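During the second half of the funding period, the structural biology subgroup turned its attention to how the target accommodates small molecules. The most pressing case was 3-hydroxybutanoyl-coenzyme A, which had performed well in the primary screen but for which no bound structure existed. We therefore specified the complex as follows and requested a full 3D prediction, including the ligand pose.
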Amino acid sequence: MAFGKVGVVGLGTMGAGIAEVLARGGIDTVGIEVNEAALERGRTTVENSTARAVTRGRLTEEAREQILGRLTFSTDFTDLGDRDLVIEAVPELIDLKAKVFAQLDKVCRPDAVLATNTSSLSVTEIAGATTRPESLVGVHFFNPAVVMKLVEIIYSERSRPEHVEAVTSFVRDLGKVPVTIGDRAGFVANRLLFGLLGPAAQLAETGVAKEDIDASLKELGLPMGPLTLMDLIGLDTCLEVLESIHADSGSPRHEPAGLLRKLVSEGSLGRKSGGGFYTYDRAGSGTVVAPVEGTASAEVAEQLYGPYLQDAAEMVKSGYCTADDADAAMTLGCGFPVGPIAALRERGTWQD
Ligand code: 3HC
């Protein structure tokens, strides 16, 4: 491995998941948080996730101990001084990221590669926050990081190609499938996914039952309905991603629904807060209180799925990514049973 020692800054849902992926891949990993309480939450996330894998018979207790043994938790940035690669996974606030990169500039080795797991900010803009913009690469994992195979590798105009290549092969060695692309709002997967999630929230706002919307998309073989998925991702994150894509596309389909804004402003952030579109039995749980069986509608499904397929066709035709990349993004990043271009081929509306 080119990167034997890796650091992760920020141990929220994604940062803790990334730290677990690294430790599972045999990497000596340091996880950094701002205070002891946040650090404890990050540690507990990894401990619970690996304990669940043991219960499910997917890990032995011995393997779990080894994974946890590769993880060090700290609130001291200087512990990143010997790292080959540092991945930033703090909340999506440019000022906060700028602060983190200013600290990394001080403590990281001059030859260390820096990475950001941003899902909604521009990698090029974040690169402007470090004195080493050529060292910065985007590495975008998907939630749950341990499960989803896709990792988008994003290069800015200033990223050094050898760093992009090194990170790409590192991610492949971790058992993930990298898709390497340029910097654009939403990259590949979120740009396509949120062209479906955003309109699903808009539809819920018009009064269509959330259970029916979810049932309609599940009928197409998606692993979860769009509103359930938004609750899993976190509604605050969904809002940020939609705002960023909307600023770039100007499409009404990417305009965040008022309902989404309202839920976020109320602190209903999805599973992590115990309630979002659905109410959960406790914060962090995926068990819905008093679940209602939805009725699938082919019309609702097509209303959401058809434009998503067109988005993918336009993305590939624009040359931003290949048909294979678009398909990999949606099947390996979001668990869709079939990629959008493959779906268009099945419909007989795609010419290679
Ligand atoms: N952490 C770790 N592992 C988890 C997990 C979690 N939070 N949730 C599920 N798993 C594991 C389970 O342990 C299980 O593994 P096993 O079979 O080896 O025991 C496996 O995943 C399947 O779990 P379950 O049987 O409990 O549940 P499902 O079969 O319903 O699968 C799911 C859960 C993998 C989350 C599936 O529903 C899915 O793929 N959903 C779509 C997720 C998605 O689209 N993610 C991308 C969101 S976009 C994003 O993250 C980008 C960001 O920028 C916004």
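Two results from this model are relevant to the next phase. The mean pLDDT is 97. The longest helix spans residues 36-55.
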